[in-house]
Amino acid sequence: PPLPPSPHPSENLHATPSSTAPGSAETIVLRLKFLNDTERLVRVRPEDTIGCLKRTFFPGQEQQVRLIYQGQLLRDDEQTVSSLHLSNNSVLHCHISPYVTPQTPADAEATDQAHASLNMGNLMMPLFLFMLALLWYLQIEYHQYFMPSATVCLASITVVFSLVAFSVYRR
């Protein structure tokens, strides 16, 4: 069975039980660097996946761990160490979030769509357009209640709204 994460930053850990002895050509030593500038040296095999690294070194926290290599977030848990071209002493930056994060791009996309559909900002332009249309209807039907200055203000607001709407939707 894999060893639990070490509280000592410089202790070598093996990613799989079938790892060979330290110094063997079949294993790679990676440096896991954390936000508090501590490091942990771990020994992995080239065929180990990112998901395997997370499960081995962060048991129970796999969904909360983000690994970053050369500024790129490693989202695909099926990528192998060799496919990422990791070599001895390569640095993987680790961020452990207190919240569970979606792991697959499809989950992240679904979450983004849900947030976009709940965004009230998307409804502001149609709502403002509805209010302007209602005010124009009332101004035409009940013109006796509108002073000329109110009509001028309504026309000015309509022009400004039209310019804003065209500039926003023109992109």
Automatic annotation (TrEMBL):
Superkingdom of origin organism: Eukaryota
Coiled-coil ranges per UniProt: none
Transmembrane stretches, start-end: 123-140, 146-169
GO biological process, one term: ERAD pathway
Topology with respect to the bilayer: Multi-pass membrane protein
A Gene Ontology term for the protein's cellular component: membrane
UniProt keywords, alphabetically: Cytoplasm, Membrane, Nucleus, Transmembrane, Transmembrane helix
Ubiquitin-like domain boundaries: 28-93
Region listing for Disordered, in residue ranges: 1-22
Ranges of biased composition (kind: Polar residues): 13-22
InterPro entries assigned to the protein according to its UniProt record, in alphabetical order: TMUB1/2, Ubiquitin-like_dom, Ubiquitin-like_domsf
UniProt subcellular location: Cytoplasm; Membrane; Nucleus
Protein name as annotated: Transmembrane and ubiquitin-like domain-containing protein 1
